[in-house]
């Protein structure tokens, strides 16, 4: 019960913060609707517009006490993932191409307590911005509660500019060490203010490995994923989320034991149920493997948006050994050659890069090989670069069925930028014309540069903030913006720490 109440208080705090930041502390004085509480409307008038956006507040009477985030956007569809820990009722969604003019509706769907509900909007127009409003009706009520209006963007074709944004490791479980809630909220809200078409998390956002291996439960693992919902809803209501698997998530093959009762199964099922990640279809390609007690992993995937190809890869579900930190006393790997992205993922990556004609190609992973520190510094090693620690080229022996190490494969196929998290630092490096971009923390209030010594070259900048990428036909611009709270007098919120431009590789 305490956990539920704490989650409710967190949701209330975050939503109030978001409203005050966006609206300057209150609504218009001549508005017909109070800005301090949701608006119930009659079931007979579901299309009544909202005069003023309002926060979602936690209450025991007549309001929606949950969150929603978007995922899996395409040129004609997007998925809404709705969840409430302690409420049941009905959910409906009104939408249209003009603000406060909703000429389309999804059929009413039943929301069960603590069970995520996926609402799929289909048959949308490509390259179109939609406005929408979620409505909630409690099981014991005849009235609907209106949520604020939000918007989203369907996929754009080649030739059209767009913006996406990225964050590094957030680690909300590290309270008072590397995580400040207020700073994280500011990062997310500032990222959301740019209205990016989507938002990418580079891993270590749902860490479960600080839990006790001897007593860990599925409920505890799921709580790590629900912990992020109030935060990520600050941007996930307007920008669909893409998740990169991190080393602290323990969504990893080495933990499978042939039963449904292990951390890897719990973590991946929590991930897939609470955050609607893409499965292979006509818009996305990805992992086709069906894993017992999970189904499709949805751990690596690719899509094209505008002039750019996006590729997310993952070493953790392919490796039969612990890639980085271990959980529960599992024996250590004997060699880094035991760590692998797997033949299936490598062949898929090779095909995806070779077949794409996009002007820009962006690849995302939690880290080079999923472990270690640095970027360019470790890019020559093992599967990634082909060499052993002595500098000898052993790739052909260790991976006889692979054409090239991953770095060389990316260079050959004109990848523009490889994005990674893991190291808790912003650093831009380059090797063979390929940019290695390490991502800063979004919530570290020490504003430090963790692992700076591991980076022997490049442009470095301290935590915290987010990265915005503006992709146009003629260039892609990468910008790192700092986050700051009102008490952080030595830095300014949204100040530009570093920027650079990449040109198309055609």
Rg over CA atoms, rounded to whole Å, is 22 Å
Discrete helix count: 9
Coarse morphology = globular
CATH C-level of the largest domain: Alpha Beta
CATH topology of the largest domain: Purple Acid Phosphatase, chain A, domain 2
Count of individual beta strands: 24
Mean pLDDT value: 88
Instruction: Tell me roughly what share of residues is in helical segments.
Output: 10-25%
Which architecture of the largest domain per CATH? Answer: 4-Layer Sandwich
Biggest pleated-sheet summary: 8 strands, mixed
End-to-end C-alpha gap: 57 Å
Structural class determined from secondary elements: alpha+beta
What is the CATH superfamily classification of the largest domain?
Answer: Metallo-dependent phosphatases
What are the SSEs and their pairings?
Layout: H1 2-23, E1 39-42, E2 67-71, E3 78-83, E4 89-96, E5 104-111, E6 117-121, E7 129-138, E8 143-153, E9 162-167, H2 181-193, E10 199-201, H3 218-226, H4 229-236, E11 241-243, H5 263-274, E12 285-286, E13 290-291, E14 295-296, E15 301-305, E16 308-312, H6 343-355, E17 360-364, H7 382-385, H8 395-398, H9 406-412, E18 417-420, E19 426-431, E20 434-438, E21 459-461, E22 465-471, E23 476-482, E24 496-502
Parallel strand pairs: 9-10, 10-11, 16-17, 17-18, 18-20
Antiparallel strand pairs: 1-8, 2-3, 3-6, 4-5, 4-7, 7-8, 9-22, 12-15, 13-14, 15-16, 19-20, 19-21, 22-23, 23-24
């Amino acid at each position: 019960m305490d956990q539920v109440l704490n989650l409710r208080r967190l949701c209330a705090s975050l939503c109030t913060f978001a409203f005050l930041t966006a609206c300057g502390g209150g609504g218009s004085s001549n508005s017909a609707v109070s800005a301090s509480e949701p608006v119930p409307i009659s079931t007979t008038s579901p299309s009544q517009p909202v005069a003023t956006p309002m926060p979602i507040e936690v209450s025991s009477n007549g309001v929606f006490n949950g969150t929603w985030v978007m995922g899996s956007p395409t040129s004609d569809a997007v998925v809404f993932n709705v969840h409430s820990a302690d409420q049941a009722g009905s959910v409906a969604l009104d939408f249209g191409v003009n603000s406060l003019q909703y000429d389309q509706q999804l059929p009413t769907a039943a929301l069960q307590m603590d069970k995520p509900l996926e609402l799929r909007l289909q048959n949308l127009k490509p390259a179109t911005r939609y406005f929408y409003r979620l409505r909630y009706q409690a099981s014991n009520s005849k009235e609907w509660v209106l949520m604020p209006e939000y918007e989203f963007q369907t996929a754009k074709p080649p030739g059209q500019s767009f913006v996406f944004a990225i964050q590094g490791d957030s680690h909300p479980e590290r309270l008072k060490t590397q995580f400040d809630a207020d700073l994280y909220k500011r990062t997310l809200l500032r990222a959301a203010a740019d209205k990016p078409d989507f938002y990418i998390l580079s891993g270590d956002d749902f860490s479960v490995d600080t839990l006790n291996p001897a007593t860990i439960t599925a409920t505890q693992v799921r709580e790590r994923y629900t912990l992020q919902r109030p935060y990520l809803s600050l941007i996930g209501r307007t920008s669909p989320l893409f998740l990169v698997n991190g080393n602290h998530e323990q969504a990893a093959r080495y933990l499978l034991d042939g039963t449904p009762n292990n951390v890897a199964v719990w973590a991946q099922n929590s991930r897939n149920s609470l955050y609607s990640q893409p499965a292979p279809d006509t818009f996305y390609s990805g992992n086709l493997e069906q894993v017992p007690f999970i189904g499709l992993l949805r751990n690596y995937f690719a899509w094209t948006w505008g002039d750019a190809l996006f590729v997310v890869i993952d070493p953790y579900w392919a490796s039969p050994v612990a890639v980085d930190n271990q959980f529960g006393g599992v024996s250590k790997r004997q060699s880094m050659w035991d760590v692998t992205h797997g033949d299936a993922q490598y062949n898929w990556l090779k095909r995806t890069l070779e077949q794409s004609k996009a002007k820009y190609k962006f690849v995302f992973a939690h880290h080079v090989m999923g472990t270690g520190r640095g970027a360019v510094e470790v890019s020559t090693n093992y599967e990634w670069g082909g060499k052993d620690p002595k500098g000898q080229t052993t790739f052909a022996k260790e991976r006889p069925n692979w054409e090239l190490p991953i770095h060389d494969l990316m260079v050959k196929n004109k990848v523009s930028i490889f994005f990674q998290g893991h190291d808790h630092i912003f650093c831009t490096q380059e090797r063979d014309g390929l940019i290695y971009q390490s991502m800063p923390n979004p919530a570290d209030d020490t504003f430090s540069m963790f692992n700076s010594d591991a980076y022997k070259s490049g442009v470095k900048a301290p935590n915290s903030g987010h990265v915005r990428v503006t992709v146009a036909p003629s260039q892609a611009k990468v910008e790192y913006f700092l986050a700051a709270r009102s008490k952080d007098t030595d830095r300014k919120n949204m100040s530009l720490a570093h920027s650079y431009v990449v040109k198309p590789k055609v």
